[in-house]
Design goal:
Layout: H1 12-19, E1 27-29, E2 33-36, H2 39-45, E3 47-49, H3 57-69, E4 73-75, E5 89-92, E6 99-102, E7 122-125
Parallel strand pairs: 3-4
Antiparallel strand pairs: 1-2, 2-6, 5-7
Length: about 130
């Protein structure tokens, strides 16, 4: 198993939403929670909706092939009516369309900074 660790100095949810290529990779694990922004599409229907196409064609083809090989159907030309596994409208971490799973607390320090600070971001998915 391989884990990719990405550390950012900005709001992590906004970073994910505006810098990650598709919904299948829009997941976060902190010291206290595991969060999936598009869990139904990612884990149930295995659809990955493209959010941004940056880079050269070879790089785009590479990640599409990578996630297709992992069992995802890449959806990059979807339009209204939107699929049921892709929720349109105002969203936030912990809403009814995301998963937020508590991880057992192992630290005892009450002075530790919350790893979820900044994860309360709201975003809006509008029709293209």
């Amino acid at each position: 198993m391989k884990v990719q660790l990405i550390v950012v100095a900005v709001d992590p949810i906004r970073f994910i939403l505006f810098r990650f290529h598709s919904t299948a990779v829009m997941n976060v694990i902190t010291a206290r929670k595991a969060i999936s922004l598009f869990p139904w599409a990612t884990f149930i229907t295995r659809n990955s909706y493209v959010s941004i196409l940056t880079g050269n064609q070879k790089k785009i083809a590479s990640w599409k092939a990578k996630y297709s090989a992992r069992g995802f159907e890449i959806k990059d030309n979807f339009q209204e009516p939107f699929p049921q596994d892709f929720w349109v409208g105002e969203r936030y971490v912990g809403d009814s369309q995301s998963w937020s799973i508590d991880i057992a607390e192992t630290r005892t320090s009450s002075t530790m900074a919350s790893p979820l600070s900044g994860l309360g971001s709201k975003w809006d998915i509008s029709a293209r």
